[in-house]
Design brief:
Layout (H helix, E strand, L loop, with lengths): L4 E5 L5 H14 L3 E5 L6 H10 L7 E7 L4 H8 L4 E6 L7 H8 L8 E2 L5 H13 L3 H16 L9
Helix pairs in contact: 1-5, 2-3, 5-6
The protein binds 5-O-phosphono-beta-D-ribofuranose.
5-O-phosphono-beta-D-ribofuranose binds next to strand 3.
Length: 159
């Protein structure tokens, strides 16, 4: 399966938050790669990844980071591949720091920002972008959404 989505994160410690994105893409049969790319600790890696992303055929980049979370925004400044930002929850400020760092982008360089800890929705958003030009994936996504809807009971229970 060719790699169409990049899942990048600032640290190994972000992986539990980002893994649900990978699991969703597995479920939907979307090819992806996972990399640790830090805006502060490995800026050259960030630059190289952003510069090569179009030529490598990436169609979406999911970028998660916590605290002074500059990775998604810096990646958006380096590539026109859509960047989906995932604010990672932090111990000190509960991820509000991550959210504010990611969401307040200046005009011209948007990041599609998910909720704090929103790895799964980031995977779904990436799949929805790809599904615009992939009818088979669109059908799998529709089925996935229908299954979720069907699993929701009509009434609450005590169990
Ligand atoms: C950020 O700093 C990472 O995205 C991570 O969320 C946070 C803490 O990183 P570690 O100190 O756990 O490596 O760059």
């Amino acid at each position: 399966m060719s790699v169409k989505v990049g899942i990048i994160m600032g640290s190994q410690s972000d992986w539990p938050t980002m893994k649900p994105a990978a699991e969703i893409l597995d479920e939907l049969g979307v090819g992806y790669e996972t990399k640790i790319v830090s805006a502060h600790r490995t800026p050259d890696r960030l630059w190289d990844y952003g510069k090569s992303s179009v030529d490598r055929g990436l169609q979406a980049i999911i970028a998660g980071a916590g605290g002074a979370a500059h990775l998604p925004g810096m990646m958006a400044s380096k590539t026109r591949v859509p960047v989906i930002g995932v604010p990672v929850e932090t111990r000190t400020l509960k991820g509000v720091d991550s959210l504010y760092s990611i969401v307040q982008m200046p005009r011209g360089f948007p990041v599609a920002t998910m909720a704090i800890g929103g790895g799964a929705n980031a995977g779904l958003m990436a799949a929805q972008i790809l599904a615009l030009h992939d009818a088979d994936l669109a059908a799998r996504l529709d089925a996935w959404r229908n299954t979720l809807s069907a699993s929701i009971p009509e009434e609450p229970s005590d169990e």
